[in-house]
């Protein structure tokens, strides 16, 4: 396995396991301004009219949990497991509890995190939002999240993760198991702002049944200590997955980011698209498409820019197990073309404006169904990040 100063490895015992209890807040609009400033950066709205539901966890406390439409359920995972006996069948089904040290440790701690359920045939007109926030210094936040999108349902979930301004170090371990039933559509947009010395170790597995659609968007623009993630998606007959990531690694940041998609039945389709910028840090960009049956199609695309000394290591993989699979990949690592800069300068932009325009265009991956106000915030975040990248 590729390694950079052993940054993939963490000492679980080096982090605090206990945090203060944060009181529950009934009204989103009364959340303290210090928290709101951090939540807004990752797409969280305090106007409940803009969302189908909200789940906010601060350290290990549920700060707020509510819904605004019928047919959509959002709860803390612990209370959901007590209320729904059937839900236990979905916990640890896609991620083995004895897979590694992290899962073995997580299997011993109390359940934290969220459960989101979408009833059969329900189409949520507005996104649902979740936020996992770390406030205590050197705290180890551990969550187990379950999503069940029942047949022919559709929802877009905006998942923000953040830390308090004062926080210097911490650990986030998120185990997520998503179930997309027959004909359902799950869009999952993650916007993360972790902090310069925070370690992040998510483990995600998604199962998409016949005709289902899973769209994943991952956006990380700010410095982070280290992220190591390699989610896996299992596609059945005529199921579709589109997985997009937009990554910026500033000075000292380490990102080992991948995605595995298993195309397990005829008609399965997958696309993995990554945009990565190294501005002094390290990005290992992985992608692996596995064609298991005839009649599947997949494409993997990884493009990167190096603006400051660092490392961008692209590792695209294709595995075909039978005749009749169609899969392709392309990867490119480079720099900003001087001719593009000169072209824009000839049309009235100065050099800094020209470079900024090119960088913004490079990071622009089409995110399907993104609310206008969130798209505007992401664009603003990219503009603010440019100052650190240049």
Please give a structural write-up.
This is SUF system FeS cluster assembly SufBD core domain-containing protein. InterPro entries: Fe-S_cluster_assembly_SufBD (IPR055346), SUF_FeS_clus_asmbl_SufBD_core (IPR000825), SUF_FeS_clus_asmbl_SufBD_sf (IPR037284). Belongs to the iron-sulfur cluster assembly SufBD family. It holds the Pfam family SUFBD_core. The protein has 390 residues and is of the alpha/beta class. The chain folds into two domains: 325 residues, no CATH class; 54 residues, no CATH class. 16% of the residues lie in helices and 44% in strands. The chain is built from six helices and 22 strands. The strands form two sheets. A ten-stranded mixed β-sheet has the order 2-1-5-7-9-12-15-18-20-22, with helices on one face. It has an eight-stranded parallel barrel with strand order 8-10-13-16-19-17-14-11. Strand 1 and strand 2 form a beta hairpin. Helix 4 packs across helix 5 and helix 5 packs across helix 6. It is globular, with a radius of gyration of 20 Å. The N terminus is likely disordered.
Secondary-structure blueprint:
Layout: H1 33-41, E1 53-58, E2 61-67, E3 72-76, H2 77-83, H3 101-106, E4 114-118, E5 128-134, E6 140-149, E7 154-163, E8 169-180, E9 185-193, E10 195-200, E11 203-208, E12 213-220, E13 224-229, E14 232-235, E15 240-250, E16 254-257, E17 260-263, E18 269-279, E19 282-291, E20 297-308, E21 311-320, E22 326-334, H4 338-345, H5 351-363, H6 372-389
Parallel strand pairs: 1-5, 4-6, 5-7, 6-8, 7-9, 8-10, 8-11, 9-12, 10-13, 11-14, 12-15, 13-16, 14-17, 15-18, 16-19, 17-19, 18-20, 19-21, 20-22
Antiparallel strand pairs: 1-2, 3-4
């Amino acid at each position: 396995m590729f390694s950079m100063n052993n940054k993939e490895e963490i000492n679980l015992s080096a982090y605090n396991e206990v945090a203060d209890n944060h009181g529950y807040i009934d009204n989103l609009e009364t959340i303290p301004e210090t928290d709101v400033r951090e939540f807004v950066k990752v797409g969280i709205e305090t106007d409940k009219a803009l969302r189908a539901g909200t789940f906010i966890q601060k350290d290990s406390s549920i700060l707020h949990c509510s819904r605004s439409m019928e047919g959509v359920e959002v709860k803390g995972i612990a209370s959901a497991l007590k209320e729904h006996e059937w839900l236990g069948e979905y916990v640890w089904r896609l991620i083995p509890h004895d897979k590694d040290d992290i899962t073995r440790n997580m299997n011993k701690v109390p359940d934290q995190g969220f459960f989101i359920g979408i009833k059969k045939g329900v189409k949520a007109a507005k996104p649902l939002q979740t936020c996992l926030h770390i406030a205590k210094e050197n705290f180890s936040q551990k969550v187990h999240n379950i999503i069940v999108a029942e047949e022919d349902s559709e929802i877009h979930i905006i998942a923000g993760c953040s830390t308090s301004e004062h926080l210097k170090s911490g650990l986030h371990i998120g185990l997520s198991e998503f179930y997309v039933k027959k004909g359902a559509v799950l869009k999952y947009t993650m916007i993360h702002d972790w902090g310069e010395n925070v370690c992040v170790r998510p483990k995600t597995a998604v199962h998409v049944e016949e005709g289902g659609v899973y769209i994943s968007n991952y956006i990380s623009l700010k410095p982070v200590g280290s992220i190591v993630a390699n989610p896996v998606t299992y596609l059945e007959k005529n199921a579709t997955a589109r997985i997009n990531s937009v990554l910026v690694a500033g000075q000292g940041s380490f990102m080992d980011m991948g995605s595995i998609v298993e195309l397990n039945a005829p008609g399965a389709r997958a696309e993995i698209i990554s945009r990565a910028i190294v501005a002094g840090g390290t990005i290992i960009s992985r992608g692996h498409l596995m064609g298991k049956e005839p009649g599947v199609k997949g494409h993997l695309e990884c493009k990167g820019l190096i603006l400051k000394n660092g490392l961008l290591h692209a590792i695209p993989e294709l595995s075909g197990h039978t005749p009749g699979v169609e899969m392709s990949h392309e990867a490119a690592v480079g720099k900003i073309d001087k001719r593009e800069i000169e072209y824009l300068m000839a049309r009235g932009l100065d050099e800094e404006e020209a470079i900024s325009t090119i960088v913004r265009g490079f990071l622009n991956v089409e995110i399907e169904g993104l609310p206008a106000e969130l798209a505007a915030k992401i664009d603003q975040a990219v503009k603010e990040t440019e100052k650190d990248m240049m």
